[in-house]
Write a structure and sequence with these properties.
Length: 653
């Protein structure tokens, strides 16, 4: 069975071999848009080396038997290049030569336009040698292969047959640009799906434990933002539904225009304007049909969409003011309503959105404290992993960020001898394997499988002590997404409204690092969260239905649940608190009390060191937007002279 993919569908095909005690795989690049041409399939013809990759217009993978190839690509001009791997670990004998011969004949029978055929074998070939009695061995492996090449050349003059042995495969893998592929398949340090999954599970039991509760998650703005960046089928279906809605409404308007003109007769007072609207709508419909088909095929929207301008209002006002006979009582209001709806829909703005968000891009998500940023991106990582798609989450806080190698080593907990390029290449290889697994899955509603992307999220850049270097790393994402088109980066940071909407001063643009601001109430409307939170925290609010809409934001809701966990509101002996300031004040008091009781420092509860420290830090950050940990620690020690040292321990008097 053969599955046909578009230009974006397959950029790699891995054929696994085993030798001795380890697995050797070759990663043959049959289609890619990034500059990895030195690792491409190439051939010798007329004494010149031709790069087939540059002329491949689409690639295909073959599943099943009797196809003669494992994988093949369509070259510009209608010819094919095919790749066949044979599991021959010993000297290639006559029977195995016959198998190769049959594969070539099968490939040419199925695809007569096959122009180049590559046979991959996991061993080096034996050349001419002296045998027993110091006689030259005539029937050598090299001789059998050369005879087959000559035979095929006579049978198929337009076909170039090439053999890749173990040395050639390793040679290709050692060329610049294939470093990560070599590491991914050959190194003893394994970067696998299970490895990245284990890193997320570790984060869930560590720094994410108090920040992410899967059972309390509801999908909101972040979900669609990330899904759109990944260009998933879910996101594409949503866009196609919107486009289909416009096409349907425009088609209805054309139908109503035809009915109105038929009723009014030729050369009626409305005909010129209405026919102009009809012609423009028909052109715009064709454009949107092309866009819809591209999105369903999993292709990014890269071509500029030029809509025909349409003057709706002249006809709308004319229809409103016209006094027509009763035969128009049905068609006139329907046509007016249809045209008004089209006029009020900002189609040009929607086209701008299509061109901006349906191309390869990264996402910077900014929002108020407690708006659900961490919860949202953590859930997106978990959704990918539950679907067996690799993804990682990086905590910016405490993560050294002098360069991307440092970030990746720290976040992955190892792979220290890997470069950033090697790791990113391995990430792409992991994503490519998913496409191979999806190849046999049936299509639904003609939606082809999109190119699988590897999601990298960086959470809480504003919490980092290295914000300045993170700014540079964010700028570099434009380079990485162009170099590795299978990678998608999503990063989060706090904002504080219009007066301080980007305190971390991160770089954004309209093309690659696109900025998204969460609503003030958070990622998900509070009314959707409150009941789930009350249930999870065991809060009985019977008799107090107003509580469901009483909170300013998600952080207020969480503080409330921490305050009243396991309690019945009706049984309280004091008024219930819902205000953010009062709830935060109570939490600070609890922390102050717990710290004093557990750590037994040299101060008393009445000293309120925790509260005063927070106020001190806040005051300093108002005067100076950023400050290092050491700066703030030194300031606290000075302000709390003879009460606390730089380690946070109290000084005994």
């Amino acid at each position: 069975m053969c599955y046909d993919f578009t230009l974006h569908q397959i950029n790699s095909f891995a054929i696994s071999f085993s030798k001795w005690k380890f697995e050797i795989s070759i990663h043959i690049i049959v289609l890619t848009r990034r500059p990895l041409k030195h690792s491409a399939i190439s051939c010798l013809r007329d004494g010149q080396r031709h790069n087939i990759l540059s002329s491949i217009s689409r690639s295909l993978m073959v599943l099943g038997v009797m196809a003669g190839v494992e994988s093949y690509g369509l070259i510009d001009g209608g010819n094919f290049v095919g790749v066949q791997a044979k599991w021959f670990t010993e000297s290639v004998n006559a029977g195995q030569i016959n198998q190769i011969r049959k594969s070539i004949h099968s490939a040419l029978l199925v695809r007569p336009a096959m122009a180049h055929y590559i046979v991959c074998l996991p061993r080096n070939f034996q050349s001419d040698k002296i045998g027993r009695g110091k006689k030259l061995v005539e029937d050598t492996e090299e001789k059998r292969i050369n005879e087959l090449i000559e035979e095929i050349a006579n049978a198929y003059p337009d076909l170039t047959l090439e053999f890749w042995n173990e040395s050639r495969i390793l040679q290709e893998l050692q060329k610049p640009g294939a470093e990560g592929i070599l590491k991914f398949w050959f190194t003893k340090e394994i970067l696998s799906f299970d490895f990245v999954k284990s890193r997320f599970e570790l984060a869930k039991t560590g720094w994410l434990k108090e920040r992410y509760t899967p059972s309390l998650h509801s999908q909101g703005e972040i979900h669609f933002i990330v899904q759109q960046a990944l260009y998933t089928e879910e996101a594409r279906r949503k866009v196609v539904k919107e486009i289909t809605g416009f096409i349907s409404h425009a088609t209805l308007s054309i139908k109503l225009i035809d009915q109105f003109n038929a009723l009014a007769g030729r050369s009626n007072a409305f005909e010129i304007e209405l026919l102009a609207i009809k012609t423009a709508l028909e052109g715009n419909i064709q454009l949107f049909i092309q866009v819809k088909d591209s999105i369903k095929a999993g292709e990014l929207v890269t071509d500029k969409i030029s809509l025909s301008p349409i003057d709706y209002w002249t006809s709308i006002h004319k229809l409103h003011s016209a006094k027509l006979d009763p035969t128009f009582n049905n068609i006139k209001p329907r046509l007016t309503e249809a045209l008004t709806e089209l006029a009020e829909s900002d189609l040009n703005e929607y086209v701008d959105w299509l061109l901006k968000h349906n191309v390869a891009h990264n996402c910077g998500i900014l929002g108020f404290p407690g708006s659900g940023k961490t919860h949202g991106v953590a859930n997106e990582i978990e959704l990918r992993l539950l679907s067996n798609i690799p993804a990682i989450i990086i905590r910016a806080k405490d993560c050294p960020s002098a360069n991307w190698s440092q970030i990746l080593h720290h976040s992955l907990g190892g792979l220290n001898d890997w470069t950033d390029i090697e790791i990113f290449t391995a990430f792409e290889s992991m994503a490519a394997r998913i496409d191979l697994e999806k190849a046999g899955q049936p299509l639904v509603d003609d939606f082809k499988h999109e190119l699988t992307n590897f999601l990298v999220t960086i959470d809480g850049i504003d919490e980092s002590d290295y914000i300045a270097s993170w700014r540079d790393r964010v700028k570099e994402l434009e380079h990485w997404i162009k170099t590795f088109p299978r990678l998608r980066f999503v990063f989060t940071a706090r904002s504080y409204g219009a007066t301080n909407d980007n305190p971390s001063q991160l770089h954004f643009d309209d093309n690659v690092n696109i900025r998204f601001d969460l609503p003030e109430e958070g990622d998900v409307p509070l009314t959707e969260l409150t009941k789930d939170y009350f249930k999870s925290y065991g809060i009985n609010y019977v008799g107090f239905p107003w509580l469901l809409t009483a909170f300013e934001n998600a952080l207020s809701l969480k503080l409330f649940c921490e305050e009243y966990k396991g309690k019945s509101i009706a049984d309280l002996d004091r008024p219930v608190i819902v205000g953010f300031t009062a709830l935060l004040n109570n939490k600070i008091n609890r922390i102050d009390t717990e710290f004093t009781e557990q750590q037994k420092p040299g101060w008393s509860k009445t000293d309120q060191v925790v509260r005063k420290s927070l106020i001190n830090v806040s005051d300093n950050l108002i005067l100076k937007r950023t400050a290092s940990h050491d700066e703030l620690a030194d300031k606290l020690v000075a302000d709390f002279y003879r009460l606390v040292d730089k380690t946070g321990h109290g000084l005994q008097s």
